[in-house]
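Researcher: First entry.
Model:
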Amino acid sequence: VAKKKGLRRLVLGDAHRLPFSSNSVDAVLFVTSLEFMREPVKALAEAVRVSRELLVVAFLNRRSLLCTFRRIKAVFKESVYAGARFLTFKDVERMALEAGRVVRKQVVFTGRQTTLNLCVDGIVSRKLESLLGFSLRFGGFAVAKFRVGELHEPR
């Protein structure tokens, strides 16, 4: 699919050991993946190591109706979400800051957004989002942005 869309170079790798040099990419993006990793801080540390500027983490918000629905559903029916560790903005921020300390780089939280994703037809969610905005703490799909840079230690 990626090659059909024009991506010429694809690299298969492990998020815990990225096959890239330090500071070799502008940005790193995680999309609903940290929830399923045994060592999410280690994966974030690798992302911070290779990123020159930006880290973006999109995750399933533990405080949302969507995640509550998925947890309940996983009790009654086999689901990939049974083993998921749903996150909050505080969880993601804490892990990203810890990752920065591990690789001795500065990581600064710069913003957040959410979508409601209410487990129903998107029309309902879109109407409510147009009224309430995209920074709700209980939105189902959440995005946290971090600026990444070299650590400037005092002399």
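Researcher: Second entry.
Model:
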Amino acid sequence: CDDDTGKPEKIVMAEVSSDLAWGSMTGETYHVGTGDDGDENLIRVQNAGLGSGNFPIFDDVMVIADFDSANWKKWYIPSYEEMVEDIYRNRTQIEAAVTKLGGVSNIVLDQDYWTSNEDNTDFSKAWIFNPATKSGSTVAKSTAYPVFRMTELKY
């Protein structure tokens, strides 16, 4: 929630049913996931024009990325910074909501998830983040991990 208004700023949807590779173009230096804003990283991937199948986690979110209405912005994959600021910082509230909806607390958050960030020195790797432990590392883009999707409310 926004600290000033109490209104939710971002909505998170955990995609835990399937593990996806970050990208299939390992070692290529396209610099598409280098910012601290997941929405901007998605735009970089879309603008790279490299075709479907090259960035599986982004292909997955682009299926719903164009969804737009009077109240919602498009879906995207959070950056590493957003995983820390939005997911880790609010993990207690997220776990409570998951439990309230019939899920199991800690199941969703205690694992590694892809971020939308590439390693800025080795572009064959990208960042993963574990919201329960506030830890992250870089792994090969061909490795499969689950993905969080995020969107924001429009005001």
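Model: Note on the second entry: The chain has a mean pLDDT of 76.
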